[in-house]
Amino acid sequence: MPRISGQGQNRFTTERKERDFGYAISHNLQVHKNLCLKWGASWPYFYFDAYAGCGVNHKVIIEGEPLVGSPQVFLNEADSAGVNHHFAYLCDKDPAAIIERRKFSTT
């Protein structure tokens, strides 16, 4: 398995990790949303990612598109779940990854 940015990645393992992470985040967002509805609250959702990277891996291409990382998977799932009141804290030890991530930020 090739190492990209210090991580072992290939088309099969990373695609599965991305999909499984999406399922887990989607489920958790639905639980959060249902609790807010049950209690009539508008609590924010807090997402912390200690190894966020830049959010897009241009070196792993799946079906003609670069692999999206956990920050983008979270944002996509939050949008799909209708959880708009959230805070995403994204960290990475590589300053270049943080600068790259800022290019994709909408806020």
Summarize the structure.
With 107 residues, this protein is an alpha+beta fold. Helix content is 48%, strand content 23%.
Order of strands across the main sheet: 1-2
Number of helices: 3
Kindly state the number of beta strands: 6
**Percent helix among the residues?**
40-55%
General form: globular
User: What is the gyration radius calculated from CA atoms?
Assistant: 15 Å
| Main sheet overview | 2 strands, antiparallel
**Helix-strand topology string:** EEHEEEHEH
Overall number of domains: 1
Termini distance?
Answer: 35 Å
Structural class: alpha+beta
Look at the structure and give the mean pLDDT. Answer: 82
- Unreliable stretches: none
Tell me the fraction of residues in β-strands, as a range: 15-25%
Describe the protein's architecture and organization.
There is one protein chain. The chain has 107 residues and is α+β, with helices and mostly antiparallel strands. The protein has one domain. The chain is 48% helix and 23% strand. The protein contains three helices and six strands. The strands form three sheets. A two-stranded antiparallel sheet has the order 1-2. Helix 1 (11-39) runs parallel beside helix 2.
List keywords for this structure.
two-stranded antiparallel sheet; alpha+beta; two-stranded parallel sheet; globular; 48% helix; 107 residues
List the topology elements.
Elements: E1 3-4, E2 7-8, H1 11-39, E3 45-49, E4 56-62, E5 65-68, H2 70-81, E6 86-90, H3 95-104
Parallel strand pairs: 3-6
Antiparallel strand pairs: 1-2, 4-5
Helix pairs in contact: 1-2
